[in-house]
Amino acid sequence: MARRDAADVVVVGGGAIGGWSAYFARELGARTVVVLEREVLGAGASPRSSGVVRAQAGTPETVALGVWSALFYASQPKRLPVDSGFRRMGYQLLAVTRAQEREAHERMAMQRRVGLPVRWLDPSEAVAMNPTLDPAAFRGATYTDVEGCIDPVRNVLAYTAALREAGVDVRERTAFLGVRLRGTRRPRVVGVETPAGVIATERVILTGGPTLRAVGELIGVRIPVGAARHQVVVTEPHPAFSEQPIPMAFDVGAGLYWRPEDGGLLWGMSNPKERPGPAREVDWVYLRRMRTRLARFVPGAKELGIRKVWAATIDYTPDHLPIVGPAIRPDGSVLEGTTVAAAAGHGMMWGPAVAKMAADLALEGSTELTDASGFGLDRFDEHGRSRATADLVALPFPSLIEDDAG
Questions:
Q1: What is the 3-state secondary structure (H, E, C) of 360-383?
Q2: Which segments in the chain show pLDDT lower than 70?
Q3: What is the CA radius of gyration of the chain?
Q4: 97 with 234, same domain?
Q5: Fewest CB within a 10 Å sphere: which of 18, 64, 183, 370?
Q6: Is the separation of the CB atoms in 347 and 49 below 8 Å?
Q7: Are 166 and 29 a contacting pair, CB within 8 Å?
Q8: Are 352 and 370 in contact (CB under 8 A)?
Q9: Residue 88: which of 207, 246, 198, 195 has the closest Cα?
């Protein structure tokens, strides 16, 4: 017999965005929260991230997302049964060219205006913090010490334990099939369809990372979220990376970042020139090319053996900004009661803040975390092109999403 039940909020997707959205919904007072996950919690890219948490973003709004997320991770040991393993390390964003140096100073001025304690380091100052760097390879770096990293696997454990303690109803291996609506001029959600039946609800939060576009298609909504390969490498241990604390580093122009990990070096990258779409196999040709580039900045990494390497499919948006707002159909009609949430490939970095905003909008209709007016689907035209100013401090994802790639 088909099952029929009810919830105050139904969250679609059991990755980091969906998991933390459900947790925050309970914190906001929702009594019955259901999470639908077609596989199991953390089955996607969430545990395969590099775990970097960065606040040095390219717009005031995304700076706020990074700061809020870092503070949330740091607060977890006192508020959750399991924390995400946040380590405060600091982050150096390297400027390699004269143009990048100018852009870094402009970005730094904006970040200071919104309260981020960021400062400029010349090469000698950067090397004093991180002796593994070659000072001849870059012109300087912006730096702040509020940033760090989490353990991605532990993060899945953290939100899993938080959901259990909060009494969230997690339904794994349960697919989202669509929504039931009432009304035509102003359609409103009244239920969510699953293989086990309908869950009566007036609030739905739609997540899904690189599968979010397909989730949108189930309800007739175009969500311009693409899928791209992201690769992460961890080298063998070496004393240079473990004898003293050293900050993380980001070659912004090439989208190459690195940080200490298990006595060695973790580094990651995405290839903006490859065809968009799901990909979890390792691209060894591109990996070797980026390893050569890494050695320009960190000469000691050139001879280090690779201990482990993996690839995951992550999401991205054309303007590198998150999506947080109601679902909107091509005719312009808003599906009342729906909230779309995507972190644009920054699931660990912005994930908690995006999830908090989604829960705020779903339950209270507004959020005080930051100005969310520019994060909605209404910023995209019918071709998925964004009218917003892009956040250029990001991995260099493809400029097209899968539909446009043909």
A1: HHHHHCCCCCCCCCCCCHHHECCC
A2: 1-4, 399-400, 402-406
A3: 21
A4: yes
A5: 183
A6: yes
A7: no
A8: no
A9: 246
> Smallest Cα–Cα separation from 91: which of 102, 104, 78, 106?
104
Is residue 198 one of the residues assigned to a domain? yes
Using H for helix, E for strand and C for coil, what is the string for 133-160? CCHHHCCEEEEECCCEECCHHHHHHHHH
C-alpha dihedral sign at 196, 197, 200, 204: positive
> What three-state secondary structure class fits 107?
helix
Q: Helix (H, G, I), strand (E, B), or coil: what is residue 243?
A: coil
pLDDT in tens, 147-160: 999 999 999 999 99
Residue with tokens 């979890």: 280
Who contacts 217 (Cβ-Cβ below 8 Å, separation ≥6)? none
> The whole model's pTM is what?
0.96
Strands 323-325 and 338-342: antiparallel
- Please indicate, yes or no, whether residues 349 and 373 belong to a single structural domain of this protein: yes
Helix (H) or strand (E) holding 306: strand 306-316
Inside any domain, residue 61: no
Domain boundary among 316, 332, 364: 316
- The residue among 298, 316, 334 that closes a domain is 316
Neighbours of 101 (CB within 10 A): 18
pLDDT digits (tens, 9 = 90+) for 256-289: 999 999 999 999 999 988 888 898 899 999 999 9
CA angle 232, 149, 78 (to 5 degrees): 145
Of 329, 333, 359, nearest in space to 8 by CA: 359
In whole angstroms, give the CA distance from residue 19 to residue 27.
13
**Using an 8 Å Cβ cutoff, are 153 and 308 in contact?**
no
